[in-house]
Design goal:
Layout (H helix, E strand, L loop, with lengths): L1 E7 H8 L2 E3 L5 E5 L9 E5 L5 H5 L5 E4 L10 E4 L3 H12 L14 E2 L4 E2 L4 E2 L4 E2 L4 E2 L4 E2 L4 E2 L4 E2 L4 E4 L4 E4 L2 E4 L5 E4 L4 E2 L4 E3 L5 E4 L4 E2 L4 E2 L4 E2 L4 E2 L4 E2 L4 E2 L4 E2 L4 E2 L4 E2 L4 E2 L4 E2 L8 E4 L2 E3 H12 L1 H10 L1
Parallel strand pairs: 3-4, 4-5, 5-6, 7-10, 8-11, 9-12, 10-13, 11-14, 12-15, 13-18, 14-19, 15-20, 18-21, 19-22, 20-23, 21-24, 22-25, 23-26, 24-27, 25-28, 26-29, 27-30, 28-31, 29-32, 31-33
Antiparallel strand pairs: 1-3, 2-6, 16-17, 33-34
Length: about 300
C-alpha cells in the first residue's frame, strides 16, 4: 500500500508515538507485508524468529519491538507493539469510509455494463466495459474489475482479511487496507467471497473461471485461465499460477505456490507447493497416481488378514 504522498521517518514516528533510528527526513513511501515489500516500505515484525527476515527484506523501514543494529541504508521504528502500530498506520492512511448510497458517486462503471438491483458498489470502485453484475453483489471500496466480467448473485468482493493476533483479552484483527483486482474475461459464480489484501492486492487473473461458493483469502494471486470448482477454500497469500484446475471441496494452505498446469482432484487438502503439470489427490494431497496405488493397497488389507488367519 503506497501513501498518497511521501512522508518522512519523523512524521511516521510521530503518528504512532514511537522512537526511531535513522535520519529525520528518511523517506517513507508506503507500508506492506513481508511478501510484497519494496524499497521505501514499512514492514512490521514482533517476534525474534522473524527479525532477520524483516531486516534483510526489501523494506527500508522496519517497525520492530526491540532495538537492534540498523542495516545500512535502512531505518527502524521502535515500538512496544508493532502489530498495534501497523494497524494505526493502516487506519490513518486507509480509514473506513461509510456510504450513503447503493452505488457510490466515486465509482466508475464502464460502457454496456449492467448492474442488477440490490447491488452495493463502494467508494472508488472501477468496473470495466461489457460486464454483468447480478443482484445482491457487494463490491467493497477500491475494487478494480476489468472488461467482460460476469459476477453472479450474492458474491462479495473485498471483505477484510482473516488475520488475527491472539492476545490474552481475545483475538486482535490486522486491519486490511488492500484491494481486490479482477482481470478481463473472468467469471465468478454465486455466493463467492474474495477477501482484499492486507496491504497488497488479491488478484484473479485474466480468463479464470470460478464456480459457486468459493472462498479466496487475502493477498492470494490467481493466474490466467484457471478453473476452480465449488466449495473450494483458498487461504491467504497463495500463488496460483496459470492454467491450474481445482475441483470441488479442495482446501489450500496459506503461503504456498500451486505451479502452472497443476490439477487438484476433488476433496483434496493441499499443504505444500506443487510441481508444474502434476495431478494431486487426497488429504494431505500427494501425486494422484501414488495416492491411487496407496488406496489399492489398502483395499487388499482385509484379504491379506484373511489369508494370515487361515495359515
Amino acid at each position: 500500500m503506497k501513501f498518497p504522498k511521501p512522508h518522512t521517518l519523523k512524521e511516521i514516528a510521530h503518528l504512532i508515538s514511537s522512537e526511531y533510528i535513522g535520519a529525520d527526513d528518511f523517506p517513507v513511501f508506503g507500508m506492506n507485508e513481508i511478501h510484497v515489500v519494496e524499497a521505501g516500505d514499512i514492514v512490521f515484525v514482533d517476534h525474534p524468529k522473524y527479525y532477520d527476515k524483516a531486516l534483510n527484506s526489501e523494506a527500508t523501514i522496519v517497525l520492530i519491538n526491540k532495538k537492534v543494529d540498523c542495516p545500512d541504508g535502512k531505518a527502524l521504528l521502535i515500538s512496544d507493539d508493532p502489530f498495534r502500530d501497523f494497524n494505526k498506520l493502516t487506519l490513518h492512511f486507509k480509514p473506513f469510509q461509510s456510504s450513503n448510497s447503493a452505488v457510490s458517486p466515486s465509482a466508475r462503471i464502464g460502457e454496456n455494463t449492467v448492474v442488477q438491483p440490490n447491488c452495493f458498489i463502494g467508494n472508488n470502485v472501477t468496473i470495466g466495459d461489457n460486464c454483468i453484475i447480478h443482484s445482491n453483489v457487494s463490491i467493497y471500496d477500491d475494487t478494480i474489475i476489468g472488461n467482460n466480467v460476469i459476477i453472479h448473485a450474492g458474491t462479495i468482493l473485498g471483505a477484510s482479511a482473516f488475520y488475527y493476533k491472539n492476545r490474552p483479552e481475545g483475538f486482535d484483527q490486522l486491519k486490511s487496507g488492500g484491494r481486490v483486482i479482477i482481470k478481463d474475461n473472468v467469471d465468478i459464480g454465486a455466493l463467492c467471497t474474495i477477501d482484499k489484501g492486507v496491504t497488497g492486492d488479491t488478484t484473479i487473473g485474466e480468463g479464470s473461471k470460478l464456480d459457486n461458493q468459493i472462498q479466496v483469502g487475502h493477498d492470494t494471486l490467481i493466474g490466467k485461465k484457471c478453473l476452480i470448482a465449488s466449495q473450494t477454500g483458498i487461504a491467504g497469500c497463495v500463488v496460483i499460477e496459470d492454467e491450474v484446475t481445482i475441483w470441488g471441496q479442495v482446501g489450500v494452505k496459506s503461503g504456498i505456490t500451486i505451479a502452472k498446469g497443476t490439477i487438484l482432484y476433488a476433496q483434496s487438502g493441499l499443504g505444500h507447493s506443487t510441481t508444474a503439470g502434476a495431478t494431486y489427490f487426497g488429504s494431505p494431497a500427494i501425486e494422484a497416481r501414488e495416492k491411487f496405488k496407496e488406496m489399492a493397497y489398502i483395499r487388499q488389507i482385509p484379504e491379506l488378514i484373511k489369508k494370515l488367519k487361515t495359515k
